[in-house]
Design a protein that fits this description.
The protein is α/β, with parallel strands linked by helices. About 40% of the residues lie in helices and about 15% in strands. It has a seven-stranded mixed β-sheet, with helices on both faces.
Length: about 270
């Protein structure tokens, strides 16, 4: 049975604090005003100055070279996986993590990447020993390990920086890339008391959500620094076309005038909550 059951508008309007999810937060007055007053342009031509400014701001905040708008966390994670892995490659991921449990096996179905799910500890962390033991040898009988997918927070629990770093370094030492599903990234750095760049340094690419604890609509960014990787916006467009024609999986290839989504994070980032 599906766990997502809606509530009627009459009930929702009188609820003081809705604890079903941190995604049910709504834009405040300042966010709505920013939407109405935003400069608009066609993002396909790189003319949406508002989105370009936010992408630049996020890249700087996390110490990465680039940021790309994605409408959902699932698409953001998928594009990162496709940038790091080729078809028949393998990723290593915690067996409770969103990429493995809650994204309809998109990494395998759409990207042709197998997922090796490994056990996590009592706070949701993947240990260095577990990562080391999961890495496949370069053998043509097996899928080659290319990527370690981490998550923080994990099931609402915060994983300390040193544990994140330890797992990441095992992957890097073996030649793998590291992706961080940071849907609750801002919650994590608040609890850890660290700078955004410190947690971001634990991964090559990051998915960040602004609806989780910040009150903005759900917008995410894929951030990365290696210049050798494919451009995530090109991946998003090409695979959106394939999905729309072949498997009816709606991944928007491009979006125009996306002020409704991207102006809210401009207001909410850095504001006390």
């Amino acid at each position: 049975m599906i766990t997502y059951t809606g509530i009627s508008g009459d009930i929702r309007n009188v609820v003081v604090c809705d604890l079903r999810s941190d995604t049910v937060t709504c834009p405040d007055a300042a966010m709505r005003a920013a939407m109405a007053q935003a400069e608009v342009g066609d993002d396909v031509y790189g003319e949406d100055t508002s989105i370009l400014a936010l992408e630049s701001r996020m890249a700087g905040l996390l110490g990465k070279e680039a940021a790309v708008f994605m409408p959902t966390g699932t698409q953001s994670n998928l594009c990162a996986i496709m940038a790091h892995c080729g078809r028949s490659d393998q990723l290593i991921v915690g067996n409770t993590y969103h990429i493995f449990v809650d994204e309809a096996a998109g990494a395998s179905v759409l990207a042709g990447v197998s997922m090796h799910a490994v056990a996590v500890d009592n706070i949701g962390a993947v240990s260095p020993e577990t990562v080391r033991g999961a890495i496949q040898d370069d053998d043509f009988h097996s899928a080659i390990s290319r990527l370690l997918c981490l998550e923080n927070t994990a099931a609402g629990q915060v994983i300390p920086l040193d544990q994140m770093q330890a797992a990441a370094h095992v992957a890097w030492d073996a030649g793998l890339s590291v992706h961080l599903d940071g849907a609750q990234f801002f919650n994590a750095i608040t609890a850890l008391g660290c700078e955004a760049k410190e947690l971001a340094a634990c991964a090559d690419s990051i998915s960040v959500c602004f609806s989780k604890g910040l009150g903005a609509p759900s917008v995410l960014y894929w951030l990365d620094h290696p210049q050798s990787l494919p451009k995530p916006d090109a991946i998003a467009k090409s695979w959106a076309e394939v999905c729309a024609k072949l498997v009816f999986w709606p991944l928007p290839p491009v979006m125009r005038w996306i002020i409704i989504f991207q102006k809210c994070p401009q207001i909410t980032i850095g504001q006390p909550r």
